[in-house]
Design brief:
Layout (H helix, E strand, L loop, with lengths): L2 E3 L8 H18 L7 H10 L3 E2 L4 E2 L4 E2 L5 E3 L4 E2 L4 E3 L4 E3 L4 E2 L4 E3 L1 E3 L8 E3 L2 E3 L4 E2 L4 E2 L4 E2 L4 E2 L4 E2 L7 E4 L4 E5 L6
Parallel strand pairs: 2-5, 3-6, 4-7, 5-8, 6-9, 7-10, 8-13, 9-14, 10-15, 13-16, 14-17, 15-18, 17-19
Antiparallel strand pairs: 1-12, 11-12, 19-20
Keywords: Membrane, Transferase, Transmembrane, Transmembrane helix
Protein name: Colanic acid biosynthesis acetyltransferase
Organism: Shewanella litoralis
């Protein structure tokens, strides 16, 4: 589901830019420099700025979130240190998900076939029980299926299959994931 945007669309209007400016200030004052163990505090701050996030989730203080109102995070999920959540488009993270350190989630791109290169908002969905390992890149319009594992430094540009392990650039399925009775 790609949605073309232009610089006159609501995502780029003055009130949105003002909101993101206030968010940036709040991020540095209340979020970024909060002690690591204050997970509920950071979830609360994200809720204040429009995120739909469980207070049982963990977001580390060095995680960067472009627009909290475009973020949905389920219970017992973790957004690790130095994760870049570039969510011009929506990003939905399910329950019991681990997004490991240094991961980059990018929910937008540009239409390179159009000479004006308009922005395309491309949601990312991460289902339950997914583990995205360190320094991985999850590209626009990607659906990470239930229980999949994305290996360290993998680049995922296509949807994954449930309970599978992916690795490489571009990421390919390398085996099935066996967890409990699955």
């Amino acid at each position: 589901m790609l949605k073309k945007q232009s610089l006159t669309d609501p995502i780029f209007n003055f009130s949105n830019k003002l909101f993101r400016s206030v968010w940036t200030i709040a991020y540095f004052i209340f979020f970024r420099f909060s002690p690591v163990f204050l997970f509920k505090w950071r979830c609360f701050i994200l809720k204040v700025f429009g995120a739909k996030i469980s207070l049982d989730s963990r977001v580390y203080p060095t995680a960067k979130i472009w627009l909290p109102s475009n973020l949905i995070v389920g219970a017992y999920s973790t957004i690790g240190p130095n994760v870049n959540v570039y969510n011009q488009g929506k990003i939905v993270i399910g329950e019991q998900v681990i997004i490991s350190q240094g991961t980059h989630l990018c929910a937008s791109t540009h239409d390179y076939n159009d000479p004006l290169h308009p922005l395309l908002l491309c949601p990312i969905t991460v289902e339950d029980n997914v583990w995205v390992c360190a320094d991985a890149f999850i590209g626009p319009n990607v659906y990470l299926s239930d229980g999949c594992v994305v290996g360290a430094r993998a680049v995922v540009m296509k949807n994954t299959k449930p309970w599978s392990v992916y690795s490489g650039n571009p990421a390919v399925k390398i085996k099935d994931r066996v967890w409990g009775d699955k």
